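Hey,
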Amino acid sequence: FDVKGIAGNIIHAIATTNAIVAGLQVLEAVKVLTNKAKEAPRLTDGCKFTWVVRDAIGSGNLLQPTKLEDPNPNCYSCGKGVM
């Protein structure tokens, strides 16, 4: 019964984490679609990549927004890299 209880808690934690991440993605998509970043020269300048950290940082925040990095020109996905 102990194993079943632990597994049950893990499943809930995974579902909660997925819901948090999906919510952050929707918020970023709404921001992009409503052109909240139109003051910036590029659309991606107003977007952020958000980390969900395990331990609270700074003033107790569990979310750490970070500026998107420029695409790597040698990357096959986001650049013009060739195989």
